[in-house]
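Schema walkthrough. Field components (list of strings):
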Amino acid sequence: MERVSPTASARRDPLARLGIHGLAAREAAYGYGIVGVVYLFLAAFVFGPMILAFYVSLTRWDALSPIAQAHFVGLKNYVDLALDQRFRFALWHDFEFAVKSYAGQIGLGLILALIVNSIHRFRALARFITFSPFILPIVATSILFTIMMNPVWGTFNEFLRFFGVAPGQWLSDTSTAMNSVVLTIIWKYAGYYMILFITALLGVPQEYYDAAHIDGAGPLQSFRYITWPTIRPAFLFISVINVIGNLQVFTPVFIMTGGGPDRATEVAVLLMYNTAFTDFRYSVANGMAVILFFIILLLTVFQMRVLRQGDAET
Amino acid sequence: MPPPGAARVSGGRDRGLVWGRVAGEGLAYVFLLVCAVVMLVPFLWMVVSSFKEQWEITAVPAIWLPHVWHLDNFAYVIRDSPLITGYKNSLIIVPIVTAVEVATSTIAGYAFAKLRFPGRDVLFVGVISTLMLPGFLIQIPLFVVMVGVGWLNTFQAMIIPFLFTPFGIFLMRQFILGVPTDYIDSARIDGSGEIGIIWRIVFPLTREAAAALAIFVFINSWNDLFWPLLVLRQRTMFTLPVALFTLQGDYGTYYHYVLAGATLAVIPVVIVYVFFQEHIVRGVTLTGLKG
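Field assembly_structure (string):
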């Protein structure tokens, strides 16, 4: 009786017919009605699949046969995965990707924000141009960079030769492939992080800089004592979101290298995808998903704790 | 904003500082110029190269401009590839997902922010606890659900699972909290229904948040490759990212066609960006810092 469809109830007075009178009771009825629908959807499309992932990871199943044929094997998939070198490498590549991307995206984003904030002309133009890669579709960007990184005739090597630098192998060499994907992702998102940091920097009062300047503070001191304390909460929040997102990288790696060469860029979600839909070891892929989920959860909790601790200090 | 310190410094000690500032700002412009070039060159190279012949792209040393500007590269890709189908499908799916998600997020956000009922805040914590759940953990198992209900290769599979999202609900709730409860109470006493309140009071006051959410959902949904890759297996159902990805596989080393396809996928987005830059930036900032 609580599940009243919100559209129907807006018309005459269906609630009165259900015996609900009085403003407070009506309000509660609407509340439960709406939240009930929300939970119905979450049950079907969030909680349900999550439980399914946990269950399937305890079975042997290819997702081609009916789920009734999923053979319960207990923790076998997890034991296998703990010993699986390929999976361990994939997690390692995930971390490599996340750390390098974090350094590049957040570092360049912050530097760009500070610089754009300090100049007096062309500010809007600088923002417009550096943010523009963010709006390009990621698939198109990945395809474009793959072509430009061709080791034989690629434009990037053309530029390197122009500056007298030896041309690189880019995506074709195990030692440079990951960095090349990271480079692409930095190019695409540095402007995005710049925009976020510019907004965070709006919270810093200009007078503080002026005062510090009169007191003879250099730019580094200004940053340390004025800028940093103000943007710190935003910085930590942005960091958490960045790391969580980058640990789930799929599209650029899938398109640019497919995990190669020699699995040097095989990240966790890509391995999951291939395990589930190419090798049809669907239950194993679910086990990987569960493990990566817990890793991300732990990292999130850890970062949140650091974040809160920082709040207490300042 | 006035240049800090530029007007008020004087005297010998500060002269060095002024010159330092001028030099610093000069360096800043040089750095930004380099960045601008780095950001723009790949984009320009793509557009120009999509008019080339294949050998002009792979030539060493590079040929920067095509001898003949081949418009027929685009004609070929439009005729021969699933790109236009992808466009059509994305233009059906993405606006629906966006509109519905903004509507449901506003309604649910309103319930969690303004309706008083026992257990509300616990139920809200239940919703936001799923906020950080990684997409793959949901979508890999959700795939078999889609198979089970027979939704592979359907638009429903692209739309229904995203009708309610924890992020949208969370974002709208945060902003609806700021709507004065007095307005809502007096509207209710005047006999306004809850949907009327949402439509006439809540929505107008949180329009900026709704716009930000719409931009956020649109960009994500427009770019998503992982989910459509799982559930859309027929070419006629492909969304734009899948179509574009297929193009790379189909044409392989026919780079002029691949680049023509990429250009066709990028140009409309760039036009939208040029016209709605401020909105996009504001929307992205709002969702990026509140999420």
